[in-house]
Design a protein that fits this description.
43% helix; magnesium ion binding; 9-stranded antiparallel β-sheet; 37 helices; alpha+beta; elongated; nucleotide-binding; ATP hydrolysis activity; magnesium; 9-stranded mixed β-sheet; EC 7.6.2.1
């Protein structure tokens, strides 16, 4: 946002779609009013929130009806509102209990339909009529997968239970309402209405309204990092009415006191209520409540009354996780799974039909047939009954079901758990990547969603916030315009030869922690004893900057005991920059309490009593403060956005000065600076008393409080004298231009969605190379739907004109894109989007935006950001990624296919809502181009490979059944069938899925165009699935028929040849995998060759068990040379088509990846040769 330096985030107008109210929290009883300012009432303790809560606290305020409130009696939980059941303070984050773990965990696992399929198969195999495998062997694969997942879930939930026990058994200090003494009580036993005391650095046990603090002014500092991730201190305040007699031994809890407040809700930034104390009604707001999950800092103690406990606390109400996302590959897998199901059904139908035909042709032989004996020749009474035959129709049906059991592994159950292990391994290497480590914030890459790693390799659109994402969000005051005069010749203090902000106090030197460049002419004007009009306005300008904020100055020790630093604490970097600027010009904010501030004005300490504070809100786009000055005058200082401030200026104003100020603002914005306009007016006694009266009535109202306060603020902020304007620089992050250039080469379109004004956004766009001078800009700034329609139609016509005269782009892997097509950029503002989004104009906007190289959206609200993402996500198959750093980016991050949070200056709300988190925007390049590329190609190959290896095995079983009268008997033992997917072939796929690299990091960074392989689905498509299934059929033929033809005339039994088939298929599929591995290491060697050895050992062990079929079978065949010759022949014959296809493709139709891989090999060989020659 431009000009909203007063907000808590970089783009104040984006903070919330809810119209915010203003908050001014102070006592409202007459006893708290002291005589001051020549008879004007002086409120010694004004209640206002900290800078950390400005816009969000306002935005969260909602109107409260009496029916929506609850009563809380101070110190007496038994009298709390009888209409509602108040929960105790115990919390539960664990998902399971000991009793429900097994049924609930099984139920959740079977939400995967594939698990249901394998369960049905296992159940069918238990029926005697259709049992094929042993009952244990049929259940083993599914049981193994369920057990592994259950153990993982149980461990995770055990950790939650342990955390819950520790949390619930922490000690709290609770007040006895009769004696006033505090006694220890476990957190889980605290009840609504009880008075609780919290000491410094302790956690807050429940949501509680402050009654008293150790600070005489009622101020308390809390850290909310466990609640919203923000590390900056927040200020909270106790009401003066309760500060007079804090609960304790001297003052037991007032039994007549009670609180009426809103029902529990998830809004952590809002609270609405009032309190009856000594017969007086006191208003309560967000600044008067501290929430569970916070910690008390820089305050010795606080006392409060519990209003929400346990499951009703705001932190627990917000504990639900974000909606789960599924990767595109996993979604596409469903298509192949359906095709495999169709193949499976086809095989089963063939078996059933052929079996029916065979039974019909041999009906006369069934009385003696081994598997279909009609007659029972044993000594039974019912000899006339059929013995093992149920009729032709039932036998065909049973054959179909038995075929499903035999061929079940056509759909690989091991694939799902393998994918989880691979994603876990990929996440580990992303987290440990030093190239994604941010030294400035000491933060590593975070992988918060393990199920979409591969989506990072297919992104086509990146939607980025500007402030804090592209820029550092570290604001620095650059220039000022005062009475239309531009002061932008800033130099450092050292260059000036003096420091203007040092303050002597108690034989110690205090000075601000940061210095700001100052304009020498403006410094001389401020220090000039002559009282010119320009000098007076300059002083009022910087006085307004020092007063009109919510910054809290904290004194920090230094190595020099005689010198201390003033650290201005505030969540808004804009406000911090303005206060540091005022200090550098000699207006140093030294102290802030709830009722006054102390400012050193050019060496003279002055106290300003704060009589009123209206926080920023998105309607007014202004913030104002009412202060009583040392000369007993009452002044209203206002700062806000230019478009809101120029609408409330005095009627009689110097138009030339206004025009000059606007010109300076335009110049600042064109330089990419964030602008702010400052104004003031002096209030008469009558105006102040009128404001005070209506404000006190409105602030204690439960019904319509927000609307009343907004009206009061708008009414007082009129007839302002414009003092000047400021320009603040938000510098680009390191590497942003280069990152955007790389992503554009990779075929990724970068859209910037910001709340800044258009000039600022365009300037930043040029700075980060998002916009270029060659681009044709399409600007849509419309104030009506018809105007938007016309603008969009004109844009479409312009594109068609350019397309007619420009050829399509030609892509070259080495040089990038070479084209004479005219590049275009769409620039649109939030007002236009109001008339476009969710209307019939969305389709036109989609057409225009997708043909533009760059889209820049200015002045957009958070929901509009999400709407822009949805525009692409819902109308195309393009993968979307959203990246931001603030709470106003959360909706956009959650809407996109992949959401990334930046650990920036605006707290960690975006991180907490994201799928991945990192410290800098530039890390997107290695994340997408390197890890995204690797993750996609690994996972895509692993999925297809799992389909292939299981299909080979199924087709071997199918060929064998054709020679057994379709009886579904198998030569391969049931244990080998069960272990094939779970043990024999699983580990190599996991290792390759984690470690394989088709190209090096250096190469992928050098040629961003290689990323387009993922965008084009080169590694996973229906075509590749068909090819690999064709290869599977051929390899199954080689595995089955070579041994069959060799041993058909021999005396070798079926079990022995079955062992040969088992070893041959494992050797073949692992060599197939080895042939496709690009990067070998010892782990890959151990996994692939080790699994072949492990298979041989397992087959030997199985054949050594006398109770199992095929006892000693392997030893009858393994000792012959023909056995090893068959293995060799199977491997050569099976791999010949695959090898030939790879050779032909790489030589005749090489992909970009293959070309660059060959180039790498050539360059490495050339480099090695050169080194040898030099030696």
């Amino acid at each position: 946002m431009v000009g909203e330096g007063l907000t808590t985030s970089e783009e104040g107008e984006e903070e919330s779609p809810i119209p915010p109210s203003y908050r001014h929290h102070r006592r409202n009883s007459s006893s708290a009013v002291a005589a001051s300012c020549d008879g004007f009432p002086k409120h010694s303790h004004v209640r206002h929130p900290s800078g950390a809560d400005t816009e969000r606290l306002a935005a969260s305020q909602r109107e409260l009806a009496e029916s929506d409130s609850r009563l809380v009696f101070l110190g007496d939980p038994g009298l709390s509102d009888p209409r509602f059941e108040m929960p105790r303070n115990s919390i539960r984050t664990a998902k399971y209990s000991l009793i429900i773990f097994l049924p609930r965990n099984i139920f959740e696992q079977f939400r995967r339909l594939a698990y249901v399929y394998f369960l049905v198969i296992a159940v069918l195999n238990q029926l005697p009529q259709i049992a094929v495998f042993g009952r244990g062997a049929s259940i083993l694969p599914l049981a193994f997968v369920l057990l592994v997942t259950a153990v993982k879930d149980a461990y995770e939930d055990w950790r939650r239970h342990r955390s819950d026990r520790i949390e619930n058994n922490r000690a709290a200090s609770v007040c006895d309402p009769h004696s006033g003494r505090f006694f220890s009580k476990r957190w889980k036993e605290v009840r609504v209405g009880e008075v609780v005391k919290v000491l410094a650095n302790e956690g807050i046990p429940c949501d509680m309204v402050l009654l008293a603090t150790s600070d005489p002014t009622g101020v308390a500092y809390v850290q909310t990092i466990n609640l919203d991730g923000e590390s900056n201190l927040k200020t909270r305040y106790a009401k003066q009415e309760t500060m007079i007699h804090p609960p304790g031994e001297d003052h037991p809890v007032d039994p007549a006191g009670f609180i009426r407040c809103e029902q529990p809700n998830r809004n952590i930034y809002g609270f609405l209520g009032n309190m009856e104390v000594d017969g007086k009604r006191v208003s309560l707001g967000p600044a008067n409540i501290i929430l569970r999950g916070c910690e008390l800092k820089n305050t010795a103690w606080v006392i409060g009354v519990a209003v929400y406990t346990g499951s009703e606390t705001k932190v627990m109400l917000n504990s639900s996780g974000a909606s789960s996302k599924r990767s595109r590959l996993e979604t596409q897998m469903n298509r192949e799974t359906l095709l495999l199901s169709a193949i499976l059904i086809a095989l089963c139908l063939v078996m059933a039909i052929c079996n029916g035909i065979w039974l019909g042709n041999h009906s006369d032989d069934l009385e003696l047939a081994q598997f279909f004996r009609k007659r029972d020749y044993s000594d039974r009474d019912d000899k006339d009954e059929n013995y093992n035959y149920y009729g032709l129709g039932m036998q065909v049906f049973f054959t179909f079901l038995m075929s499903v059991i035999v061929f079940q592994i056509m759909i690989p159950i091991s694939l799902y758990i393998s994918m989880e292990f691979v994603r876990l391994g990929q996440a580990y290497f992303m987290i440990r990547d030093a190239n994604l480590y941010d030294e400035s914030s000491n933060s590593r890459f975070q992988c918060r969603a393990l199920n979409i790693n591969e989506d990072l390799g297919q992104i086509k659109h990146v939607f980025s916030d500007k402030t804090g994402t592209l820029t550092e969000n570290k604001m620095e005051f650059q220039c000022a315009s005062i009475r239309g005069v531009d002061y932008s010749g800033g130099t450092s203090l050292r260059e000036n030869g003096e420091e203007h902000c040092i303050v002597a106090a108690s034989n110690q030197i205090l000075k601000p922690k940061m210095s700001v460049k100052t304009d020498p002419e403006l410094v001389r004007l401020l220090r000039n004893k002559g009282e010119s009009e320009q000098g007076k306005q300059a002083r009022e300008f910087f006085l307004a900057l020092a007063c009109c904020n919510t910054i809290v100055p904290l004194v920090v020790d230094t190595s020099d005991p005689k010198q201390k630093l003033i650290d201005y604490q505030g969540e808004s970097p804009d406000e911090q920059a303005l206060v540091y600027a005022s200090a550098s010009y000699g207006f140093v904010l030294i102290e802030r309490t709830s009722g006054h501030i102390i400012i050193d004005v050019l060496g003279n300490k002055q106290r300003y009593d704060v009589l009123g504070l209206h926080q920023f809100d998105s309607d007014r786009k202004r913030m104002s403060v009412i202060v009583c000055c040392p000369d007993k005058t009452i002044k209203l200082f206002v700062k806000g956005a230019d478009n809101s401030m120029f609408g409330v200026i005095q009627n009689k104003v110097d138009l030339c000065m206004i025009d000059a100020t606007k010109a300076n603002l335009h110049a600042y914005s064109s330089l990419g600076l964030r602008t702010l306009v400052v104004g003031m007016r002096e209030l008469s006694r009558k105006e102040f008393e009128e404001w005070q009266s209506v404000y006190e009535n409105a602030s204690t109202s439960l019904m319509g409080r927000g609307k009343l306060l907004r009206a009061i603020a708008s009414n007082i902020e009129k007839g302002l004298l414009i003092l000047g304007a400021s320009g603040i620089e938000d510098k680009l992050q390191e590497g942003v231009p280069e990152a955007i250039a790389s992503m554009r080469q990779a075929g990724i379109k970068v859209w910037v969605l910001t709340g800044d004004k258009q000039e600022t956004a365009i300037s930043i766009g040029f700075s980060c190379k998002l916009l270029t001078s060659q681009m044709t800009q399409i600007v849509i700034n419309s104030q009506s739907r018809e105007s938007c329609r016309k603008s969009l139609q004109d844009a479409i016509a312009m594109y068609k004109k350019f397309a007619a005269i420009s050829p399509d782009p030609f892509e070259n892997i080495l040089t990038g894109i070479v084209s004479t097509r005219v590049p275009m950029a769409l620039i649109i503002d939030g007002t236009s989007l109001v008339f476009i989004l969710e209307t019939e104009l969305e389709e036109d906007l989609f057409k225009v935006a997708t043909v533009c190289d760059v889209v820049l959206c200015c002045r957009v609200a958070p929901l509009q950001k999400a709407g822009i993402v949805a525009l692409i996500k819902n109308r195309s198959d393009d993968m979307t990624l959203a990246i931001g750093d603030g709470a106003n980016d959360v909706s956009m991050i959650q809407m996109a296919d992949v959401g990334i949070g930046i650990s920036g200056q605006e707290g960690r709300q975006a991180v907490m809502a994201s799928d991945f988190a990192m410290g800098q925007f530039r890390f997107l390049v290695p994340l997408l181009l390197v890890h995204g590329h690797w993750n996609y190609q690994r996972m895509a190959y692993m999925i297809l490979y799992n389909f292939y290896k299981n299909a080979v095995f199924v087709f071997i079983l199918f060929w064998y059944v054709l020679y057994t009268a379709y009886t579904l008997t198998t030569a391969i033992t049931e244990w080998s069938s069960a272990l094939y997917s779970a043990v024999y072939t699983t580990l190599p796929t996991i290792v390759v899925g984690i470690l394989d690299k088709d190209l090096s990091r250096k190469t992928l960074m050098k040629y961003p165009q290689l990323y387009r392989a993922g965008q084009r689905d080169e590694r996973y498509s229906l075509k590749l699935f068909i090819l690999i299934m064709t290869d599977a059929v051929w390899q199954s033929v080689a595995v089955f028929y070579i041994p069959y033809l060799v041993y058909r005339q021999s005396t070798i039994d079926g079990s022995s040849i079955g062992d040969l088939w088992t070893l041959a298929v494992v050797v073949l599929v692992n060599i197939h995998l080895a042939m496709d591995v690009r990067r070998w290491n010892w782990i890959t060697h151990a996994a692939i060759w080790g699994c072949i050895v492990a298979t041989a050992i397992c087959v030997i062990i199985i054949d050594c068990i006398s109770t199992l079929p095929g006892y000693w079978a392997i030893f009858k065949i393994m000792g012959t040379g023909l056995f090893w010759l068959c293995l060799l022949g199977i491997t050569v014959a099976g791999m010949l088509p695959h090898f030939s296809a790879k050779v032909l493709k790489e030589y005749l139709m090489p992909s970009d990846v293959q070309i660059v891989r060959e180039m790498d090999k050539f360059w490495r060989i050339a480099a090695t040769t050169s080194e040898i020659q030099n030696e």
